[in-house]
From TrEMBL:
UniProt-recorded name of the protein: Uncharacterized protein
GO cellular component: chloroplast
Disordered: region residues: 42-62
Residue ranges with Low complexity bias: 42-54
Residues making up the signal peptide according to the UniProt record: 1-30
Entry-linked Pfam families: DUF1517 (PF07466)
UniProt lineage: Eukaryota, Viridiplantae, Streptophyta, Embryophyta, Tracheophyta
Residue intervals passing through the bilayer: 68-85
Domain of life: Eukaryota
Record keywords, A-Z: Membrane, Signal, Transmembrane, Transmembrane helix
Amino acid sequence: MIFSRKHVSVIVLLLIVFLAITWNLTLVSASSGGVMGGSFFDSDSSSSESYTTESDSEYEEDGGRGPMVFFMIFVFGVFLVGFCSNKDANGNTISVFKLQVGMSGEAGCSIQRDLTRIAQAANTSSREGVSYLLKDTIQTLDQHHGYFTAGYSSVEHKQSKEDGEKCYNQLSNEERSKFDEETLVNVNNNNMTIRRSRSYDEYAMLDSEETEKFEKEKLLSGPDNKYIVVTVLVAAKGAHKLPNINRAEDLKEVLQKLKSLISSKYLFAGEVLWTPQEEDDTLSDRQLLKDYPQLAKSMNIFLVKKHE
């Protein structure tokens, strides 16, 4: 079969249109993500207290005191070991927190820009640096409380560093797997990664008039794209709880409670994840429901409480 030049031109044109549509759909569906934080389970310098009872040799010399004395010593020893074991277990408890905040991505919300600034300046190689970025993040979220649309929190208690680290890493991996691309990463100061999509660079080059036109086109083409999700993960010493979140006021209370627990003295690990990371992007209702079902459920509760 012989194709004419006209037929070839039509085929090439259709192919170009198909590739362009596919590329645009990829850009729309992809979600960028930012990650900053650090883990210090292996570098913990504190050691758990060890309790020992006196050696049996000290009692062998007094073996002639009779069975009653021996029985009393035995009972006291069992009580002492049990008491010390419970104390040691409570002292080794690790609380692993997960806080997720859903925010409106409407014009005026600068949370993405602020978190990017924090990530680029953060020293994530030390507990102090991670503690500072967590506090800075919480303060930034509190300043944007007017954009809160949903909140979700959970706490898991583990009785060893190994279990605490495993739980924390699992949560971190689950959250990071929701990103199509990590466009900014600063974790334990390991080669901070910053990538920008072509749409971001083009947007940055627009003048004020073109920017306004670009924003209007975004609103017309994607009315559902309006959410930003920020996740805070913390592993800290001690058995702690967080208040339930039913409204924006509860979320502010949780932020303050969490802020009081992230001292570098008690911090094992901390991480902040947000999506989309790029300022010209937001999540749609469908993306929120798919990747963050707890937030979607919380959003309904927020709306009910708001109208009560």
